[in-house]
Amino acid sequence: HKHKKHDALQPCDTEYPVFVYEPAIKEANGLIECGACQKMFLAQQIMNSNLLLLVTDATCDCSIFPSFALKAKEVKYNNSVKCDRMRSQKLRRRPDSCHAFHPEENAQDCGGAAAISASSTLLLFLLATTALLLR
């Protein structure tokens, strides 16, 4: 739709100052101080998808600390930057369709963990080893 001349256009940019996702970085890791322990984490991009895998150490209990919700912070511009920004941006419209996947993503790989089963030979070996160790 077209905007009328009397409509005052304003930039509406928001940011979440908690993290920045950089597609060039394929993996990141670190430590989170959590009371008396340190919780290790690993974030890794899943190839051919729009997903990130986040793995944390479950042995470190951080439940004593309150959780927090991310709130968007509006980016404020001074008048000269605001005018430049409004001149350089085109009016946006919603895309015709949603592309919530990567073309090379293989959906057949998703949810296959339920089909995993233990080898009966391996199970018998472990039971025999346990029985020998408990004697």
Automatic annotation (TrEMBL):
InterPro entries, alphabetically?
A: Ca_channel_alpha-2/delta (IPR051173), VDCC_a2/dsu (IPR013680)
**Bilayer-spanning residue ranges:** 113-134
Question: Can you tell which superkingdom this protein's organism belongs to?
Answer: Eukaryota
| Tagged with keyword Secreted | no
List, in alphabetical order, the Gene Ontology terms for molecular function in this entry: voltage-gated calcium channel activity
One GO term describing the cellular component: voltage-gated calcium channel complex
| Keyword line | Membrane, Transmembrane, Transmembrane helix
Q: Does the keyword Cell membrane apply?
A: no
Its recorded name reads: Voltage-dependent calcium channel subunit alpha-2/delta-4-like
